[in-house]
Design a protein that fits this description.
7 helices, binds adenosine-5'-triphosphate, binds magnesium ion
Length: about 140
């Protein structure tokens, strides 16, 4: 069964570069509904918890550092088959390998500064949505 929601973050560099609007436009044009959204600056502890699945990876510390370098936008997006559809829209993890027209190709600049996060499974989408938002903040 494919789920209806995914969790995205617009990463610090993309926020600093003024790409919140263009990225939200892409999300809108591609038929996702925004269920919840906030602008926030993650603490080191919060970023470490969010990326706990990657804690054994060599890039974990750098990832946490870059994700706490400025404010991010977190949002829950709704669409049929949301996780897969959104990963298609954002493109490959490394912007250099992302298809033309994808969010990471358009607004990412490196593997680390790849503009956005997108959940990788329905189960993680729900875990990540609950990490950022209470039921009261979802519409
Ligand atoms: P995301 O989870 O952010 O949507 P992803 O699922 O495509 O991206 P993951 O393997 O989950 O990729 O990695 C999480 C994030 O860690 C990536 O978005 C990227 O910014 C960073 N990352 C992944 N691999 C590397 C690497 N080899 N070196 C540096 N950073 C990396
Ligand atoms: Mg991932």
């Amino acid at each position: 069964m494919s789920g209806k929601i995914t969790l995205t973050m617009i990463k610090p560099l993309a926020v600093q570069q003024g790409f919140i609007g263009p990225i939200l436009s892409k999300i809108n044009e591609n038929g996702f509904r925004i269920v919840a959204m906030k602008l926030m600056w993650l603490t080191q502890n919060q970023a470490m918890r969010f990326y706990e699945v990657h804690k054994e990876r060599p890039f974990y510390n750098d990832l946490v550092k870059s994700m706490t370098s400025g404010p991010i936008v977190a949002a829950i997006l709704e669409k049929e088959n949301a996780v897969e559809e959104y990963r298609k829209l954002i493109g490959a993890t490394n912007p250099a390998n992302a298809e033309p027209g994808t969010i990471r190709k358009l607004y990412g600049s490196s593997l680390e500064a790849n503009a956005v996060h997108g959940s990788d499974s329905d189960e993680n989408a729900q875990i990540e949505a609950d990490f950022f938002f209470s039921k009261l903040e979802c519409f």
